Amino acid sequence: MSFRNSPKGVRTTAIHAGEAPDPTTGASAPALHMSSTFVTDQVAGFSAHDLDADDSAFLYARWGNPTVAMLEQKIAALEGVEACLCTASGMAAASAIFFTFLSAGDHVVVSDVSYAGVAELARDTLPRWGIEVTLVDMSDLEAVAAAIRPNTKLVHTESPVNPIGRLTDLAAVAKLAHEAGALVSCDATFASPLGQNSAEMGVDLIMHSVTKYLGGHGDAVGGAVAGRADLIAQMRGEASIHHGGIMSPFNAWLIARGVATLPLRMKAHEASAMAVAEWLEAQPSVTRVIYPGLESHPQHGLAKRQMDNFSGMLSFQVGDRATSEAVAQKMIDRLETIHYAVSLGHHRSLIFWMGTEALMETSFRLEGKQLDSYREFAGDGVFRLSVGLEDSEDLIADLAQVL
Ligand SMILES: *Cc1c(COP(=O)(O)O)cnc(C)c1O
Predict the structure, then answer these.
(1) 115 CB less than 6 Å from ligand 1?
(2) I want to staple 366 with a disulfide (CB 3.0 to 4.6 A). Which of 35, 306, 316, 371 is the partner?
């Protein structure tokens, strides 16, 4: 019954971790502490360098806030790790990892397909700071091994990867990175903490856009990185206190409310996504469906081994670019239940067309073997569908009138 490091089950952990009834008022629900500063009874220094990891007292919101700390403890408990840092957005979480653990002269290996913002940050920004970047197909272990150098400090991957649903063998990549003395970070936004036990497979820094499944309701932006206490303390000193991208207490409060139902929601997302994916596979107009839970997923064996929940993210193709763009326009005009919009992981279903050519120009710029691997999953482009919590019959009926 116990879940990862928690003595309680997963549902109990999601609801109660980080929370306790208020000792003065008895309030059962966690408080929303909209306070930027905290009255202190200690004569202490005023610098990130004076931050004492064991000191739970609050000083100023950029160091920590009780409502944000409550969410951080909840996410750490779900990931089965010691600590967590919440950030202003998922991108702030990615920046926190890169700018805490990399310096000029260091080398980082990054998945050649990743969330577009992360791909652009890695490819365009990190080299300006003197950080060497190698972009590799993380499903190709030989390529990962070949990319690692003596000055490689970090290997950053994403599994399943947005938007094409390709997986990384996390245990294998972590082993390669650790043998070289590098840290491993994984953007696990698509999987959610319940989709895979990233820490057990050796991931040091587990990153989420909590805007997505953890918040779950499409009303708050935030990010998180979970891992060992010493690594998270280092990130808090750099990314929060110095770079300043902290999460607002109000967003933490909303997101914690979402996390309480995460185990129930992920089951429902998975069940609906499976039903929709199977229906899509049977449609003559649909060329290809990619969902880790389908036997037709090129890495279904790895998915079964590595994932505990296949999540609600699927992608599908409907032929070439012209055909797809016509279908996208039909979706914009006719869909009633599913919203034609970016983002994912919400109770509302969301769909968005992502053309391969356009993404290659703006974000990925792949060639040769790496482009072939991308196209194996995405063809000329994919409809990325985030299957929400509506009745799957209604989602299928909505898709049936445009496909
Ligand atoms: C959305 C997303 C991000 C960025 O998160 P924001 O909260 O929008 O900044 C990063 N990684 C993945 C996989 C995402 O889907």
Answers:
(1) yes
(2) 371
